[in-house]
Amino acid sequence: MIRKPMYIDGSWQPARSGAQREIINPFDGSIIAQVAEGAREDAIDAIAAARRAFDSGPWPGTPAVERARLLFRLADLVDREKEDLARLESLDTGKTVIESRWDMDDIAGIFRYFAGLADKDGGEVIASPHPDTSSRLVREPVGVCGQISPWNYPLLQASWKMAPALAAGCTIVIKPSEITPLTTIRITELAEEAGFPPGVVNTVLGPGAEVGAELSENHAVDLISFTGGIATGKTIMRAAAGNVKKVALELGGKNPNIVFDDADLDLAVDHALNGVFFHAGQICSAGARVMVQAGIHDRFVKALTARMQRIVLGSGFADGVQMGPLISAEHLAKVAGYVTIAREEGARLVLGGDRPDDPALQNGFFYLPTLFTGCTNDMRIVQEEVFGPVISVERFDSEEEAVARANSTVYGLSAGFWTRDPDRMARVSRALRFGTVWINDFNVYFVQAPWGGYRQSGLGRELGRMGLDEYTEVKHIYQNHAPQPLGWFGK
Ligand SMILES: NC(=O)c1ccc[n+]([C@@H]2O[C@H](COP(=O)([O-])OP(=O)(O)OC[C@H]3O[C@@H](n4cnc5c(N)ncnc54)[C@H](O)[C@@H]3O)[C@@H](O)[C@H]2O)c1
Ligand SMILES: C[N+](C)(C)CC=O
């Protein structure tokens, strides 16, 4: 059994209360680890350590090349530990180990990308309107950053926050999801090995309503970066108002995947599967809302159904398995609840809609790949984030109708569409109001491109140059090289 404490001010320690939490394997419900279960008092200790490391420690003033060196070193350690990290992630989340290996490659690349950016900003000279003066802009670290991450991509989402914050010269207190903390603890061990000074990286474990709430409310925190659900994001925004801390939010999505009549049907079906069934649909950018133009609708549904029937469920560690379990019994109940709602609303269940009957999967939180057709814009299955292996298919006639319907959602994270018509590519990509739009692809993200949502899918951007800028303040420095008396108030 794995047993892990928290990391505060450069030392590994239990929760002040001594409390512990059991971490559950979603594949079979077994207990895989016991970790410290922190509370507000532990978060307060960590924030104080991060504050000291920022205000009087060497980190913000450390030359950017040295910060970069540590981040490059951390990337190398992620590479060294890739297989163990991937297996730990799969144990904790249930996702296939192949997906976890891709995540680890991404994560090493993220630390390298932000290490590379750390020393590239020499400031900017701007044109002063006054003679004998100079004006320049410099970017400085925001300060102490609270970082709260979700359970679905535990280490990937943590690295999107840790890497730019540390590159910018901030100090951090990170709180992973209480149900999937293991890889965040492991990367904290690697950060210690890489040589980050005490207090720069602090990892506090525990429930959102305690540890996360403290990070959001505490006046010694300058920025709170959160990835998770919309309801929690709204709570955090309200909590952050107390000291007007900066807020960065990466929230949920209900992402339309639009297939036009002229699309390559086989390709569109293939990507529709990946768009939803990777990680059992527990992806913010899952293309669970599939919209198909009338001319190919029936052929598309037939091909999709045939492919979905062949999806192999099982342990993420077993050869040939394509889809693992949902994260928890609670989440399984939520997904099943949406299926009931969809049936009551009149959607037609074509496939799935139940748990698998394979005896080997009964102790895990598995749900069958599920397909609904005959869905309409007003249904909850179409408008709300199910976060499971459930596709709703809507039929549409015109491009205008598809775009208008796709945009009629509170979410705005990502969207994709399939067509061979270059004019339509230009028109539709402009008309869709989402943070990322894919043309003839789906669910593609990489560190060079910013990621974030329109509307209620979030605030700000992670990744790319913008992802670093989130962790900086801009200072204007103005110098008068030949100051003269103004004389306004006499001599
Ligand atoms: N936009 C993105 O890039 C992105 C990426 C991954 C996940 N997500 C979203 O995350 C959600 C799934 O993750 P989840 O179920 O872990 O989300 P969640 O909102 O329940 O929890 C996310 C984190 O917030 C913490 N938290 C809970 N209550 C809190 C509070 N009152 N104050 C502060 N922190 C609190 C949790 O402990 C956890 O660490 C989905 O909606 C998904 O779309 C978005
Ligand atoms: C942002 N992403 C796609 C890596 C994970 C979303 O849940």
TrEMBL record:
The keyword Lipid biosynthesis does not apply. Pathway: Amine and polyamine biosynthesis; betaine biosynthesis via choline pathway; betaine from betaine aldehyde: step 1/1. It is an enzyme of class 1 (oxidoreductase). Its EC number is 1.2.1.8. GO terms for biological process: glycine betaine biosynthetic process from choline. Coiled coil: none annotated. It comes from the Bacteria. It comes from Desulfosarcina ovata subsp. ovata. Keywords: NAD, Oxidoreductase. This is Betaine-aldehyde dehydrogenase. The active site is at E250. Pfam families: Aldedh. The lineage of its organism: Bacteria, Pseudomonadati, Thermodesulfobacteriota, Desulfobacteria, Desulfobacterales. Residues 12-477 form the Aldehyde dehydrogenase domain. One of its GO terms (molecular function) is betaine-aldehyde dehydrogenase (NAD+) activity. Signal peptide: none annotated. The keyword RNA-binding does not apply. Belongs to the aldehyde dehydrogenase family.
